[in-house]
Design brief:
2 copies of one chain form a homodimer. By secondary structure, chain A is of the alpha/beta class. Chain A has 9 helices and 6 strands. Chains A and B meet through helix 1, helix 2, helix 4, helix 7 and helix 8 of A and helix 1, helix 2, helix 4, helix 7 and helix 8 of B.
Chain lengths: 209, 209
Amino acid sequence: MFDYLRDPQEIYAKSFATIEAEANLARFSDAERPVAIRIIHACGMVDMADQIAFGGDVVNAATAALSRGKPILCDAEMVRHGIISRLLPNQNPVLCTLNDGNTHDLAARMETTRSAAAVEAWANHIEGAIIAIGNAPTALYHLLEAIHDGRLNKPAAIVGMPVGFVGAAESKDALIEHANGIPFVTLRGRFGGSAVTAATINALARLAR
Amino acid sequence: MFDYLRDPQEIYAKSFATIEAEANLARFSDAERPVAIRIIHACGMVDMADQIAFGGDVVNAATAALSRGKPILCDAEMVRHGIISRLLPNQNPVLCTLNDGNTHDLAARMETTRSAAAVEAWANHIEGAIIAIGNAPTALYHLLEAIHDGRLNKPAAIVGMPVGFVGAAESKDALIEHANGIPFVTLRGRFGGSAVTAATINALARLAR
């Protein structure tokens, strides 16, 4: 009835060829390039290439942490479920504390969102871990503050791509300005989300194998 | 350290006020408007208002099906995990057959993707159900063909928002042209994804309660 590509390998090849042809990838290093391509692939927008910001040697830092079996800490269940476990190089735990029993009460006590309160529960896992924030600007802000205050140890790398109209662009600017030496990758502006965040982690996992 | 909104209700209110101020919502009916707003909210892009296409009385069709307890059939685990179960009005099952045991073999036999083959497993659930396709163009194409051929019964409504560079825009055009009387909502162009798809289902679920 319809004439369309059905072969998965052909679909991937044509997708990546389109991205190479249309996206402005020239400014990325060889290490960053496959990550940028996967971000663009996940959202279907070649213009997003211009919004990607890498900080420090995030690809090496994240792949080394993944190879060592460090956990991936997610702000949302959709991020967690977008991470493809068979790609992870060392049975890395993928954790999301958003729906932990005490997050709701902690958020009320701290007068913040559940997403921000959930970051507090990362304390025992965060040192050298990989952060994957794909939903809540308040989670990214809270993370940066908790690291700055010394309440949380430093992760190996931050994938910070919250989305929305209130604080998303601003929290990502804050990451770029106040990463405190932690390597990161982000998307400037309002767009972000669980799909691009999970795609970034999956791209890093492929590079770590 | 940073000055940002922390109150969830204030964040929602300011987000929706921004969407009302910046997005072109004039062409939507009263029924469609809250769905359009949630789609824009999920992706952080007010321009996406111009890409939304509603077909038939999709809000009434989908909310009636949800109220009757009909299942929601998803093409991807990320879509399934983005649907907020406490919003569903009648303990609606949320199903994803992508990782069923025989999907891989069926895809090989049918010479198509796993996502398309997974649609075949919807046969016993699809009549009057709500479809949520947020990833694979081939799943949407396959669905339209299987309904056209009479191999699958008609669902109550199709949320069809696959994403990508190969077939995404084209499969959504096919939905608009060949919906076969089934009410639908889609996003023209390459952009789509699990977040906007789940947000659409969640918006419909809120209206059904």
